[in-house]
Write a structure and sequence with these properties.
16 helices; three-stranded antiparallel sheet; alpha/beta; binds pyridoxal-5'-phosphate; TIM Barrel; about 425 residues
Length: about 425
């Protein structure tokens, strides 16, 4: 019997020898023994799939490869694997080959908003920097399936250099998100080099790292890695727990090590049909996260990437979950539910409506219990008419000499007193074309 099968089976039965346990908790061993074929999954879980089913699954794998760490597979409940949230995130489903008309390879238009390969610059002050294209486990629901695991997208040192140059030459960028793939799949010294280079850019204030290793390969959080993270005082990490079952004792140790290295932790979940589309599961998840000092950051509506239709829920389900959290539990345990706008508009927050009505003096609001209340606005609120200029204003702006001033854009600009814009208008309005004749 091959080693992966043997050790994983023994791990599930909790009968590892000391030597086997040492190997099990070695992340390199986990990577070297990553499960990439269906037969091994069958052998480990003691299940038998029909030949017909295996043939279809094989087709799925030829389009979207599979990779599961022995650790993550060991979390599957073999008794009811078909309904298992870990299994569903890791094991292919033939429905991945069904591509609906409205699904897209790159729904967020990340390639279009890319000034140089590897960089997506969508928001004014921050960029997404893809520094790795491999992950410890290939999530079946991954938005970037088109890139992850694709040999053609491995960012070379040259590509990374060009990305760094772009950030160096773009002084408005104050926040850099290292993502991929999974940045923690890079060797320590290479990761240290990238972080060091980004950190040395004077206008970069914050570095964020998106990693799923605490979920699928918690042993990756080694002392040598945390020693690198400790060298910097501006790193934030976002991880990706989707189900309370994923917060195991090993995951907790990994999270603890990161917190002890001084890194603030956040979590981005994806709302997935059949995995976590349940108010009770979400409540449990956010509670376990904050108990381990991880702040729920975003709950994503599943993107319109190809082959993800079976994972997508209605938006109503997401709003229902948000309704079940706000007021019912600690405010800091509540993520922001967002839809990443198809076409590249960025993340748009979605939530229940709490403002019921509005008059000139009062706002009518409702709370989580259904209590309807009124808020009386001040009758003598003196607006700071910004047209007078910041020099004459008695609010304390306190910006440094020579520091470029923030200039509003978008809807925020419409609200500004010192701006002349009074509307935002789509290009090519039919009436404009008509009137131009
Ligand atoms: C999500 C994302 C960001 C970061 O957005 P925040 O709301 O600041 O977390 C930046 N760039 C791109 C392209 C993104 O998709
Ligand atoms: S870890 Fe992230 S990038 Fe990697 S496969 Fe999962 S969702 Fe995709």
């Amino acid at each position: 019997m091959n080693e992966t099968i043997m050790i994983t089976k023994k791990k599930i039965k909790k009968q590892l020898t000391e030597e086997e346990l040492r190997r099990w908790t070695d992340w390199q061993w986990q990577i070297a023994h990553t499960i990439k074929d269906i037969d091994t999954v069958e052998a480990i879980l003691d299940i038998t799939l029909s030949d017909e089913k295996k043939k279809h699954l094989q087709e799925t794998l030829s389009k979207f490869p599979m990779a599961i760490t022995p650790y993550y597979l060991s979390l599957v409940d073999r008794e009811s694997y078909e309904n298992d949230p870990v299994f569903k995130q890791a094991f292919p489903d033939t429905r991945e080959l069904e591509i609906a008309d409205w699904e897209m390879e790159d729904p967020l238009n990340e390639d279009h908003d890319s000034p140089v390969p590897g960089i997506t610059h969508r928001y004014p002050d921050r960029v997404l920097f893809l520094v790795s294209n491999v992950c410890a486990m290939y999530c079946r629901h991954c938005t970037r399936k088109r890139k992850v695991g694709d040999i053609d997208f491995i960012p070379s040192k040259d590509v990374i250099q060009k990305g760094l140059d772009y950030i160096r030459n773009t002084p408005t960028v104050r926040d850099v998100l290292l993502s991929g793939g999974d940045p923690f799949m890079l060797p320590d010294d290479y990761l240290d080099w990238i972080i060091g280079e980004v950190n040395a850019i004077p206008h970069v204030e914050v570095i964020r790292i998106g990693t799923r290793t605490p979920v699928v390969l918690p042993f990756r959080i080694t002392e040598s890695l945390t020693n690198i993270l400790k060298k910097y005082d501006n790193i934030w990490i976002n991880t990706h727990f989707n189900h309370p079952r994923e917060i195991t004792s090993s995951a907790k140790i990994a999270l603890r090590k990161l917190v002890m290295a001084g890194v603030p932790l956040g979590n981005q979940s994806v709302l997935l049909s059949g995995v976590n589309d349940c108010t009770r599961i979400m409540r449990k998840l956010v509670h376990k996260l904050v108990a381990n000092r991880v702040r729920p950051y975003y709950l994503y509506q599943c993107d319109l990437s190809e082959g993800l239709e079976h994972f997508r829920t209605s938006v109503g389900k997401g709003i229902e979950i948000m309704e079940s959290l706000r007021g019912h539990t600690s405010g800091f345990a509540i993520p922001t539910y967002v839809i990443d706008a198809p076409g590249g508009g960025g993340k748009i927050p979605v939530m229940p409506s709490y403002v019921i009505s509005w008059g000139s003096n009062k706002v009518i609001l409702r709370n989580y219990e259904g209590v309807i209340t009124t808020y009386r606005m001040p009758s003598n609120y003196s607006e700071y008419l910004c047209r007078n200029g910041c020099e004459k204003c008695d609010l304390n702006l306190n910006i440094k000499e020579g520091e470029p001033e923030f200039s509003p854009s978008g809807v925020s600009k419409l609200l500004g007193d010192f701006e002349d814009d009074i509307y935002l208008k789509p290009e090519n309005l039919e009436r404009d074309e008509r009137n131009a004749k």
